[in-house]
Amino acid sequence: MASPGATIQQVFNEPACDKNRGKDARARKHGCSKPLTPGEAAGGCAFDGAKIVLQPITDVAHLVHAPLACEGNSWDNRGAGSSGATLWRTSFTTDLTELELVMGQGERKLFKAIREISQAYAPPAIFVYSTCVTALIGEDIEAVCKRAAEKFGLAVVPVNAPGFAGSKNLGNKLAGEALLDHVIGTVEPDDAGPYDINILGEFNLSGEFWLVKPLLDRLGIRVRACIPGDARYLDVASSHRARAAMMVCSTALINLARKMEERWGIPFFEGSFYGISDTSQALRNIAELLVRKGADPGILDRTETLIAQEETRAWNKLDVFRRRLQGKRVLLNTGGVKSWSIAHALTEIGMEIVGTSVKKSTVEDKERIKQILKDGNHMFEQMAARELYAMLSQGEADIMLSGGRTQFIALKAKTPWLDINQERQHPYAGYEGMVELVRQIDLVIHNPIWRQVRDPAPWDCPPVIMDEMPTTTSEMATVRALKTCAGLAAAADLDAC
């Protein structure tokens, strides 16, 4: 087993990373991502990233070997959904105290915690997460996990991703390495078939995967493992027998996709289930990969039939919204796959993208954005809150789509805002998800509250002082304007005068 330091360097040198491939040999030695300074805030640490990737494996016990505060990152950190198992919603921690850390009692307490979980819950596996504190004092969680697995007869998986190792994205990839080293390939399925696929980098946020899976079911395609969204341990352990794979978020798990292709010959492509045309193209790519791996070519015709039916149904539902949203300007403050997939989806219904963040996007993501927007000036790496507020308050966008951290900038600028990150309440993937996304945008943009909050406040308007009732048309118009400004009465109420 490689040391944590060697694993981290290997992840940085990921050959499938477009950014790394574009460098010369000397620069490539430094890796495709620069480690952050310990303690520097960057949207989450490596431990956070590893937990994000592995937590949605729903029938596994996730045990954090650390003081209690580290388990503040618990099951609800991403809004992923489960169709059955609920063990992932239970927080487990060794709750190390200062005395135990000083006296070196951490490993003993970890072993005891694994024993208690195995006896009380009998899970198929326990994932043990190293953190900053336990890594710094040299806790050997690999040895403890190996001994516990032999003693209790279940899989105990060490996840070496202490927070100080780097960013959240690094933690994503380290979680993929843990799956490759300890989980994938450990179970041989007895029902492998020519239509089995893996979906990688799909987190089933707000149940999005459940809008896509029925489409694949209708084509006779079985998702052997969706990693990690709504996953089960045995499905992940046997995922090496899939015939093809789709990569949804390459920034998180590109190393997992590449190594599964190298070890087990599973070809993969990167696609998106956001938007009508992207969903259709993803289905086509899946079918074509399966045919290349020996599936019946008839699946290609069935796929086109399904696409024609679903696109017709979706566009019929979108027509009413397209008329209302045509030409509306959108600012996307997100990253990764959403930086181009959401942009493409919205341009399909005639909306204009005035800007999209590419801070977390790969080189390939940026190239897709350039093809979609036809203008590289609409891309920005990072926009300060002051600049973002200025852009919105000056009316350069009709709505902003982003995560919860920037919602208050939009609200202060009195601009409609919609959450499209992990905290969202509605699924936006697939054909039905696209209809839901457009419906939510329409509801937000045309909400009457925006007209009301943009009106001047009553104390900013001149007072309405009248010695007598208005009689002429001009006097009536003046009173109507003043009362509307002050919010005292609607224009129609003046008829009573």
What's a concise summary of this model?
The chain is α/β, with parallel strands linked by helices. The chain has helices at residues 4-12, 18-21, 25-28, 46-54, 98-103, 106-121, 132-136, 141-152, 168-182, 209-218, 233-237, 250-264, 276-292, 298-325, 338-347, 363-373, 385-393, 407-412, 430-445, 449-454, 473-486, and strands spanning 61-65, 92-93, 125-130, 155-159, 196-202, 222-228, 244-247, 268-270, 329-333, 352-357, 379-380, 399-402, 417-419. Helices cover 46% and strands 12% of the residues.
Q: What assembly state would you assign to the polypeptide chains in this entry?
A: single chain
Spatial ordering of strands, largest sheet: 11-10-9-12-13
Radius of gyration: 27 Å
Q: How many DSSP E strands?
A: 13
User: Mind telling me the CATH superfamily name of the largest domain?
Assistant: Nitrogenase molybdenum iron protein domain
Count up the helices.
21
CATH architecture of the largest domain: 3-Layer(aba) Sandwich
What shape does the CA trace take? globular
Instruction: State the domain count.
Output: 4
**Which ranges are low-confidence, i.e. pLDDT below 50, for 5 or more consecutive residues?**
38-42, 488-497
The CATH topology of the largest domain is what?
Rossmann fold
Main sheet specs? 5 strands, parallel
The first-to-last residue Cα distance is: 86 Å
Portion of residues within helices:
40-55%
Structural class: alpha/beta
Region (Disordered): 1-32
GO molecular function, one term: nitrogenase activity
Biased composition (Basic and acidic residues): 16-25
Keywords: Nitrogen fixation
